[in-house]
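Quick log. Single chain, no ligands specified.
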Amino acid sequence: MRMLVTGATGYIGGRLAPRLIDAGHDVRVLVRDAGRLRDVPWAAQAEVMQGDLADANAVRRALDGVDVLFYLVHSMATTRDFARTERAIAEVVAREASAAGVQRIVYLGGLHPDGELSPHLRSRAEVGRILMESGVPTAALQAGVVIGSGSASFEMIRHLTEVLPYMPAPKWVRNFVQPIAVRDVLHYLIGAASLPSHVSRTFDIGGPDVLRYGQMMNGYAVEAGLKQRPIASLPVLTPYLASQWVNLVTPIPRALAVPIISSLQHDAVCREHDIDEYVAPPEKGLTGYRQAVRYALAKMREGEVETSWQDGTVLGAPADLLPSDPEWSGHTVFTDVQEVDSSAPPAALWTVVEGIGGENGWYSLPVAWAARGWLDKLVGGVGLRRGRRDPDRLAVGEALDFWRVEKLERGHSLRLRAEMKVPGRAWLEFTVTDRPSGSRLTQRAVFFPAGLGGRLYWLAVLPFHGVIFRGMATSMVNAAETATDIQITKR
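-> predicted structure:
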């Protein structure tokens, strides 16, 4: 079958697409930026189309000849008015899928109780309703907390448990949750593509365990080799206040923490498991919570985190690419350029450049970088805790602390786009060039200020640039030269 996967640069879509390919399906993906799949191994085996789901023409082209549409997108972390955005996109997709003669839509929404819902869950339910009313047979799978390496829910549990030896927590830690392993979510998504044509409905999906949220945190502690944490339920922590706390002690930014926590205000337990009548459970059975945590920790230790919640765009992050230099004419642009020559070969210098950030740090005044990260978290930004997925290699579109990889020419240049809160748009570039006696590192910071606040911000941090940026370039060159000397000595 020919299948269209939307959300292929996201957490679930990025895992589903290669599994559909391995199953022998003809896979097409529709993404806003095709460059983000450039370094993804499975992309060469898929048809990659660039376009926006809000554009009816782009959706129409992408659906041409498609049998099954996987709808795996959401906008809660990319726009403040996410409900309106999600509704508008769902209406476009539903209309075009019906006109294109699509045989089935498979949608992944959120597990929710009856009655009043959080804005996030209400929007997810509305999207499912719109798709089911399209006339195309639709399987709207509803999952709760998804446990897997790189999932936002798992990262929130992990950091809350690891950072806090004692947890004053909101009352929702006593609510019941039915988590599901990401591998089981993928199993049901793939199986739902082959449902009989007369089946068009919602299906609750969940794992075998029903736990209180606090039990999930202590279950993680046991699997991670930590002491179980005493948890005190405090009724005074509202969802908004709790989201500020999560924003500070985990990598989850406030824009994402608010809808997640709002969704935890009620029990999230399957009311039915009718999906099993149509899709047989995995051969070895559904994965228990503790086993799912075990799998996730093993993937992290082995550096094999396939996709991450960080792959999505963060609220407030500029999505525009860095304009080319000639396009700067007529605009206020501030730059800081550092050039440092090195005796190390270009390959050694590039290894340092591509390994920047995360556990490797930023090579200059770590206290200053940490302070900037905390400041960013205080104002609702992403902070430095996102780290990086692989300690040595980067990919276009990947999150790197409070940057995102915008351009990567391996061995030559790396461009990072700022996702921290700044009054303007900022980029940081590294270029490695060959020299007769070694190599040269050119480091360039570019800032497009927004209004007077942006100009004042640049002037305020200007005194530190000479220390931070020059120190960073020099330290990176020194690191490359040291690594080269060690290799020579070993020979």
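The first helix runs from residue 13 to 22.
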